[in-house]
DNA sequence: CCGTCGGGTTGACGTGGATCAAACGCAGGG
DNA sequence: CCCTGCGTTTGATCCACGTCAACCCGACGG
């Protein structure tokens, strides 16, 4: 696998930033903090990094120092094993945290790649631990975020272990829809930032199967699909498909 | 599904306990703590619970208050969705923590069930947060444990998403072997505490497939299997099978 | 304008594991 | 001792998804 220009690049811009006037503060780490606590958090989030589509935020094997909050843009994380197989473990959007997997061994265990031009806030982890020893709310919120990641992963395990192809895709789309909605975007119409192949990798399916499922959903009038542009026409239908089925 | 005696029972014995003289302190939360810190931890781990095989430690939907450290015995956790499908999300043995999934919403999101007579230490979570604000090492260690759970889940996602049946079982057995070894037991010979069905649920396979894979491993002289008693005859062979294959 | 290229769609076919079904074997109870 | 029941094994068949291959289509460059 040759290193192309994008994967080789790790350069990025650094911008001064502050949580206290970030419009994501209701979505991100600062949730529920008092104004004076928020000010302390400002000192913590020292740098902002800009990444172009295809850039690596970090790579498996790199030393872990910071976690990252997505300020804008869209990421995927993936793990790969010796024999070449790989799997997308998640897609991260605005306000979500990246890098939690690195805490355990002080080494990142997956790659994080920008799927579109993006910005992240880097949060040095030792600072975060320091500050969360002072601010209960921050500590508790951080624990909740980690726990939520575990719960999310269990959901994916469920999906991979028990659902069939179309159920998986329906679950995936409904989840995306949900998350766009929470960010003030239309839950019914959005652009996929990832390829069919990346969706397949996440869902444990081949891209052809994903493509066929999209086509079938269109025939069933559940979706309108134009390349990566998705419009959900029948949310209930998708939900039913997700739980119902299974002979 | 009728509630039988075992599933209905939630009663348990309570025993006074102390981390400072627990022989698991190198495996469990106390890792790396100084003696005086250890003493503080003793106050925190207030109660020990005994469970019989089949007892629920907690159930999905119950209010989350404590995490639990397995002192002896063996557990499984599983999630289930409306339509009746369920999936085992993990097996926990001595020194491992249970209940981390409950932190995010203050409600347990899975069931934890003893697969043999077991004992756990209950650790009230708010106390743990309090103490980890005082003891850096404890705080950091706890974060590592949560992170390790995330990494583990990614491994399972990888397994479910990309491996075929025999690779999954090989990976599963090698993982168990590893964990028994870390606890001072033979890595080559052990008893499975779970049924073929539970293994299958965890690995995203049907019990028949698990059974056939066991039989095939025996033919290949990789294992000796007598019901739930497993002896690994060829670790390297299992490892090769795990990574190698794939046309 | 056309040629190329990468991602996506669609079709034909093969297969790994699910499903269905029968039989086995150990454990527990009478 | 035999009967019963559950977990497991094993076999026969089926089908969802993977594989392989052709083709489409919008983007981009010359």
Automatic annotation (TrEMBL), chains A, B:
Keywords: DNA-binding, Transcription, Transcription regulation. Pfam families: cNMP_binding, HTH_Crp_2. InterPro entries: cNMP-bd_dom, cNMP-bd_dom_sf, Env_Response_Regulators, HTH_CRP, RmlC-like_jellyroll, WH-like_DNA-bd_sf, WH_DNA-bd_sf. The keyword Transcription regulation applies. It comes from the Bacteria. Gene3D superfamilies: Jelly Rolls (2.60.120.10), Winged helix-like DNA-binding domain superfamily/Winged helix DNA-binding domain (1.10.10.10). The keyword RNA-binding does not apply. GO terms for molecular function: DNA binding; DNA-binding transcription factor activity. One of its GO terms (cellular component) is cytosol. Residues 163-236 form the HTH crp-type domain. Residues 29-99 form the Cyclic nucleotide-binding domain. This is Anaerobic regulatory protein. The lineage of its organism: Bacteria, Pseudomonadati, Pseudomonadota, Betaproteobacteria, Candidatus Accumulibacter.
